[in-house]
Structures are given as C-alpha cells and as structure tokens.
C-alpha cells in the first residue's frame, strides 16, 4: 500500500523537491522512514489528513529547523572539517589503496633483506665490519686503561729527567725515589710485554721505554764520574745499573764471566773513576805548564853544560815543578785509595781457584820489580782453559794507576834539584804506596826502575835517594812495631 501511494506521489515529489536532493526513487522506496510515514498516512482519515496533518508536519519542520540551527551553532567547526575531509575522501581512498598495494609488494623484499642482514651480521659468522665494531666497542670500554698505558713512557721519561736534573750531594733521597719509580715503571712495561707480545701499541711503548732506560743508564754512568762520590751513592748507582742494564753484569754468559761475578760493571766503575781522576789531575794544567817550562830550561842548561864542558850553567831551579808534583801526589794518593777501596767494598771478589795465588791485587808487579821468577808446578792436577774465567778488573787496574804516577815522576822529578824537597816528594810517594799497600797494591819496589834511557848520573841519584828513604822508613816501621809489641806485652803482664 505504501509503495503504491509512493508511486502516485513520486512525480509530485520530483517536481516540488529541492534540487540538492540526490535520492533516487528506488532509494526512497527502500527508505524505512518514508515507508513508516506512508503507512501512518494510510491509517489516518481524510478529515485528519486535511486538518491535523499539515499542522503536525509544520510543527515537526519548525522543530527540526530549530534543532538544525542549534546543531549548526554548536558544531559548525566539526561540520566544516567533516565536509572538507569528505571532499578529499575521493582522492585519499585511491591513494591509500595504492600505498597498501606498494606495501604488500615491498613486504617480500623487506623480508629477504632482513634475512640477508641477519645471516651476514650474525654472531656466528665472520665479518670484518663486526670485528671492527667489536674492537671499537672494546676500545671504548677500555679507553681509561689505554690512556694510562700511553702515559707510561712520559712518566718514565719524566722520572729519569727529574732524577738527572736534581742529582747532587743534597738530593740523594729524591734521586733514589725517582730512579726507583722509573725502574718500577720499566718493570711494569716489561710485564705488559710478556702479557701482550703481539700488540703493536705495547711494542711502541717498549721502544720509548728503552730509550728512556738508555738515558737513565747514561745518567748513572755519568754519576759514577762525579767528584767525591760516597760509598752509599756508588752502591746505589751500581745496584740501579744491575737492574737497568743486566747485560753489563753478565756480558758473556755462554763464554764465562769474571770470577767475582761483577761482569763488566767492575771495569765500568774503574774506568769512570779513572776518568774522574784524570779530569781532576788535568785541573793542574797551569802548574804543569810551569813545570814544562822548567823542564825545557833544564834541558837547555844540560845541553849548554855538555857543550861548554863546565858546570857554570848547572840547573838550580825546580820550585814550580815541586809545587806541581806535591799537589799531583796529594790528589793521586787520595783518589787512588778511594777508587780501589770503593771497588773492594762494592764488588767483593770471590776466591779464584788456581794452582798458585798471589795475596796482592797486583799479580806479578812486585815479582817484576824484584826480578824474581816463579817456578811452575811440576804437575798440574787439572788443566783449564785460561779464557774460561776472567780475572777481576781490579787485578790490572792498579798497574795503570802506578804507570800514571811513574811516568809523571820520570818526566818531572829530575827538575827538582834541592835534596830536601826531593826527599819530601819521595816520602809522599812512599806514603801513597803504603796507602795502596793496605789494599794489596804496594808499588814501592817498582819505583826503583825510574831511570830511563836518556837519564844521566844526577837522575840515577834520585833512585838511590828513593832506596835510602825506603830503608829508613822500613827501619822506623820496625822500631815502631817493636815498641808497640813491647807495650802490649807489658800491659798484659801487669797485675790487675
């Protein structure tokens, strides 16, 4: 019934309807509201349709208009935004469809790339990029440790340079602390080398540390040449050298070393102290030049004497030479005794096993001066290679010291013609020989060979004076010994 009425009213509705409506007859026929309203119309009478229905429709339209106005006033922004979105919906829906299609096509490629990435950079695979990243991360975690390791050569160089800068008699404790710190740092660096032998960083640090140790070795060797070195300082320096340069203590392990176990350190110590002695004696060059001038004048006077065959031009000078020799012998006596004494206190020699031993540290020196010969043993129990075990360096060192003194005496003592002055100088030499004699290096007998090839009768007199002074001193020493022994016997026999 509603459909029939709708068909009858459809032409009138299309003529009177608004131009903005977009509903088709089919849509209107299927509209539930329209169908409900048409069913309601069929239930009304004709009188109600003419009188009450128009008024009801007018009231409903007015109420709907007021509702629309209130809604427009309240929600006009949302309506405008909805209208705008609705106008762009036609273009957005195809774009969304195309994007969804592209996403669907890209998912397989994304999956394959993810599988490739997982296979390439997995923990079980070997990849240089992963290794480099691991190393970078490990470096980042250990950057503090590495910075501390990189500072070790600088700290070592600072300790060594500070020790050399503050070296002196009043800075013994600070120098000792700095050198001990340097040696501890070097030991730590060597320990790092054993832990990481293939690390290029550690190898570079080792090279820098070895350069610093070479500088320290140079400073220590220079310290052995200082003036008036004490026993404690010398022992500390030798101890540091043993730690810094152990190859000096055992230079040839496979071919044998010295019997005292000193290696090359003993010879190094003696050479340094000898250099100090020579430099100290070189400070007497102004006096030596005056003595050389007197030597030249003496030679000229001797040549004139030979030419004129008279003694009118005999040499009577020698005062400057006496001053030079007196000071020379004083320095020589003090320094030579100190050198050998320090050596014997630092390097305690062990007894050398041999078929015959000399109690002196100058083997063969007194025998040569006395023209004595030792008889070789009839039969040797054990035959050894003399190159297997080397003697201590001090065994031949005093011979060099004696040669320094004898050469000087042979060159300048003939200038001193005054007998009392010459006896005074010879007495000083005798005391010097006695000082070294307490250490096993008495050279008093070798001075009997002072005359040279070009010496004359007056120079031979010096040797005779030396022999006479030696006999006097020995006789005096014998009387003092008897007097001392007599006093001791008297003290022991006296009643308590």
From TrEMBL:
Secreted in keyword set: no
Record keywords: Golgi apparatus, Membrane, Protein transport, Transport
InterPro entries: COG8 (IPR007255)
Top-level taxon: Eukaryota
Subcellular location: Golgi apparatus membrane
GO CC, any one term: Golgi transport complex
Pfam families: Dor1
GO biological process terms held by the UniProt record: intra-Golgi vesicle-mediated transport; protein transport
PANTHER family assigned: CONSERVED OLIGOMERIC GOLGI COMPLEX COMPONENT 8, CONSERVED OLIGOMERIC GOLGI COMPLEX SUBUNIT 8
Family: Belongs to the COG8 family.
UniProt name for this protein: Conserved oligomeric Golgi complex subunit 8
